[in-house]
Amino acid sequence: MSSLENSCWSCSCPSTSESNLPSSGTNWLASKAAEMMSIISSVLSSAYGSLHSVRTANLIRRGLVLFTVGVFLALVLNLLQIQRNVTLFPEEVMSTLFSSAWWIPPCCGTAAAVVGLLYPCLDSHLGEPHKFKREWASVMRCIAVFVGINHASVKLNIDNSVQLSLTLAALSLGLWWTFDRSRSGFGLGVTTAFLATVITQLLVYNGVYQYTSPDFLYVRSWLPCIFFSGGVTVGNIGRQLAMGGVEKPHMD
């Protein structure tokens, strides 16, 4: 009888080591899960930091390219206008590089960088990625047309300023229609033209430089058309740089 009782007690009462086994296994799993979560979070943090640094470096690189393009176009186009006596600077300014004011190239380069970086950002914000003629050949043709519009502004022998302004406005809209056709491009081009014209008005009003035969508040009436076409051109360059040089078939 005593042996049977001892057997019952031995079956119904597990040992202390056996009762602690599930608890120790749970603790082990919890520690391993916490370790894995720590590893995953560190990997994700490292990947995010690397991606952020890559994006920052890409943004700086695109800004420098756009700044260089803006400086080059400013030097060439301003030299053209000075040679045609469209823009007049004081005599002490004429001795600077390429017969141009020293502050014009960096200002134009900065404006080109800002506008060129805004175009792809605005496309992404509006959810309308620009896919029309996304190729470098189209961008180069757009630059050539923009230079041609600037050349026409000083070469066309049209006595009526209204006719000249309408002609250049048609050419600028043709440039936008041929190489852009996006609402964001048109809106940002108009904004760029307005702000640039206001700044030019203030500079001319304060005697920094002047235009010959001004017909619209100290400046030429066709100036907004030049700024509009320039904004569209720089925007296309910025969009193409944002693609990382990947060629895409254009949509006609």
Automatic annotation (TrEMBL):
It is found in: Endoplasmic reticulum membrane. Keywords: Cholesterol metabolism, Endoplasmic reticulum, Lipid metabolism, Lipid-binding, Membrane, Steroid metabolism, Sterol metabolism, Transmembrane, Transmembrane helix. It is a multi-pass membrane protein. GO terms for biological process: cellular response to insulin stimulus; cholesterol biosynthetic process; SREBP signaling pathway; SREBP-SCAP complex retention in endoplasmic reticulum. The keyword Cytoplasm does not apply. GO terms for molecular function: lipid binding. Belongs to the INSIG family. Its main location: endoplasmic reticulum. The chain crosses the membrane at residues 63-82, 102-122, 186-205, 217-238. One of its GO terms (cellular component) is SREBP-SCAP-Insig complex. It comes from the Eukaryota. Mediates feedback control of cholesterol synthesis. The lineage of its organism: Eukaryota, Metazoa, Chordata, Craniata, Vertebrata. It holds the Pfam family INSIG. This is Insulin-induced gene protein.
